[in-house]
Amino acid sequence: MSRFYIIFIFLFLSTASFGQELKKYLEFAQEKFQEGDYVYALQYYEKAMKIDSNTIDILWEYAETLRAYKDYPKAAFYYGKVYGREGAELYPSSLLQYGLMLKQTGEYDKALELFKLGKKKYRNDRRGYLYQKSRAEIQSCIWAKSNQGDSLDYIFEALPDHINTPNAEFGHRIHKNQLIFSSLRADSISTSEEVYDPSYRTHLYSSVIKEGQFETENRIDELAYENVHTGNGTFSLDGNRFYFSYCKDDGYNYKCKILVAYVDGEKFVDIDTLGSIINVENSNTTMPFIGEWDGSEVLFFVSDQEGGRGGMDLWYSFIKDGNQFQRPINIRTLNSIDNELSPFWDGKTKTLYFSSSWHDGFGGYDVFKSHYNTSFGDPENMMEPINSPANDLYYFETSSNDSAFFSSNRLGSNYSKNPTCCSDIYSIRKPLIDFPPTIEETLEDLNRRLPVTLYFHNDVPNPRSTDTVSNVNYIDSYNDYIAMMDEYKKKYSVGLKGEKSDDAKDDIEDFFLEYVKQGVNDLNQFISLLITELERGRKIELTVKGFASPLAKNDYNVNLTKRRIASMVNYLSTFDNGVFKKYLNNTSENGGELRIVQIPFGEDEANKIVSDNPNDKKNSVYSRAAASERKIEIQSVDLRKDL
């Protein structure tokens, strides 16, 4: 037998052997992924990738498992590899997931560019999830960039390590000086997070709080079931009933329903399932919270039952006589096509707290609040340090409202292998003595938010005028401008077809979203801090520069930019029922003053490549380049030293 033939046979057998081994690793990894055991799944995907690290399917499955395991940097890297190879053709969501994982590492600039690319990639299905989510995440990243670093002045700390293990903990309530929480624990876990206990399930625990310290926790054994997860505990208003989630594994997800137990001293007895009006058949229903609403008892919960907006939605149902539930109501103004989770209702202030992966936020899930006044108001982000680029959920406050708790898998949480694998419980409270910032700290904070840039339509306000003042309120000018977005898209894309036309329209839409709308958001955040300092008697000077496109002559544009600055001053004068007026006209009793220094520019400062041809309105008026020149900027904040 020739040497060549022997080598060929050897290579053939080796390849077949590797192929069988690869198949075995992949089958086992996929099985563990479906079971939700991501640590084992990753180990076998890594073994598989030592044999074959180029096959796109393996890279995709590895990225998906890393995402499920919440290893955001690695998941981003491998989604990036997948997208770079297949361009979202084989795996359409690869581009979106790439961006989402970068966002959850706090890389907002990179994520923003990917979401903008995703909006173009998915625009053939504008009603589809991938397009809608990409659009929402563009706005969310812009918001996160603008609000990053605005940490509330709270005392923030993790609960002790005997509560927060290297596994997952979720806080639920403080009841009779006890913390009721859930934890995913096993009796024997190796340093590589391998689980050896077959009863590795989420169970409910309690820890007595004594003199501000959390004592050793105890599992609530009456509510612990074999091969079933329990959690999300909440007591009825009279303390006689305890509602909780009862969840079975459903692939790598859960299938839950809400149970109720009656309280007998220190024990939970007579456990029963809530009826089908709450636990709708074939639906996932979980995360109960009992609250008081205008003297009535109410159950808030989340469910994917029919009648919702998509994913897990927020619902509520009023309770009569402790066991009669009215028809549940979907909170449509807060729900989205993504998930809304972990409701907490403050009946005193009529405020609902919840977590969502859709509304403008810093990461995956952020905590939001919504005030109820005839209807639920727009969700408000709870800001840092409550929220982070990771997942932040299960927010609740103590009955005295002096402290709050939430769960997060942010960097700094307890872990054994992956820094963001698992949630810990954190507490947050206001300091006993709240020292106001120094003027140096104030100026640094205000200037950190600059420049604040506001944009205008062509020759607005007061078209064809040589006046240097205006009675137009900027917010009216802004609303008119936003209403013209479709007109801009139409006129800037005229003469273009197909993809080029769509690109031009997207370019205009991105400009209005990323710059025009964000300018107003930045202004409102800036002046909310500014008024605080004026109310302390500060004398503050703002330097505002005005710019114009080169369509008109220089002298005309100088006057136009003065009118634009005047419109912003008019907005300040009417803001919040005229709160700034006394500081602008030097009549405040506390001595606080606000002076606006105007620096108007004509066409000299305009970009020279922008068209100044009045017969080419497509480029001289409706192009993004021209629109970018029509603006004013608050460029600096100073303490007035001449007074």
TrEMBL record:
Protein name in UniProt: Tetratricopeptide repeat protein
Keywords: TPR repeat
InterPro entries tied to this protein: TPR-like_helical_dom_sf, TPR_rpt
Xref: Gene3D superfamilies: Tetratricopeptide repeat domain
TPR repeat coordinates: 22-55
Keyword Phosphoprotein applies: no
